[in-house]
Automatic annotation (TrEMBL):
It comes from Streptomyces tauricus. It comes from the Bacteria. InterPro entries: ABATE, ABATE_dom_sf, Znf_CGNR. Residues 150-191 form the Zinc finger CGNR domain. PANTHER family: BLL6575 PROTEIN (PTHR35525). Pfam families: ABATE, zf-CGNR. This is ABATE domain-containing protein.
């Protein structure tokens, strides 16, 4: 995909178990946040804002902020917490700083059919949305059970990080349909090749 080309929303992944980890998934298999349109799709798809929320203000400066936060999250979830690791300490300080901003304020509003739905009291700012993702990161890092459930996909060349909430905590792949299926096909081919040899 060429830089600047919009990414279709169906290509974005929201199956990691946390919003902050879903943001990490926007780098695989290539950069997904390459223009404002896919960033808007990610913001809506992640549930940070209700569907239909106008995000006209989301521009290239927002992309920079989300990519920066994504890099910090990657530093924080890929290693054990360490006060002695300068990159970890810097990433943690920046996430904590971003988490201080006010997050979008939700409201219960009536929709056209007369049902109550979630709305926002004002259009969300970049700082407010970054704060929501940063707070999700803080929650993940400070919840021992959730932190212990962080896994990296065992699929070939798959950097996706997810929460293993499976029974028995033995999930190996970010997606059984994608990476798991690739592994099963590769295993079948290896067995078939050995049988022919």
């Amino acid at each position: 995909m060429a830089l600047g080309t919009a990414t279709a929303p169906y290509e974005l992944r929201f199956d990691s178990g946390r919003i902050c980890l879903d943001l990490l998934a926007t780098t695989h298999p290539e950069e997904r946040l390459d223009s404002a349109e896919p960033l808007r799709a990610w913001i809506t798809g992640s549930g940070l804002v209700p569907a239909g929320t106008p995000l006209a203000a989301a521009d290239s400066s927002w992309i920079v902020g989300f990519r920066e936060l994504r890099g910090h999250i990657g530093q924080l979830v890929s290693k054990e917490p360490s006060r002695d690791s300068r990159p970890f300490v810097i990433a943690l300080a920046r996430v904590n700083e971003l988490a201080r901003a006010a997050t979008p304020v939700p409201l219960a509003v009536w929709d056209a059919s007369g049902s109550l739905v979630r709305g926002l009291c004002a259009p969300p700012t970049c700082a407010a949305l970054l704060a929501a993702v940063a707070r999700d990161t803080v929650e993940l890092l400070t919840d021992p059970a959730a932190r212990a459930s962080i896994r990296q996909c065992e699929g070939d060349n798959c950097p996706i990080v997810y929460l293993d909430t499976s029974r028995g905590r033995r999930r190996r792949w970010c997606s059984s349909e994608v990476c798991g299926n690739r592994e099963r096909v590769a295993r079948h081919r290896r067995r078939a090749a050995l049988a022919r040899a």
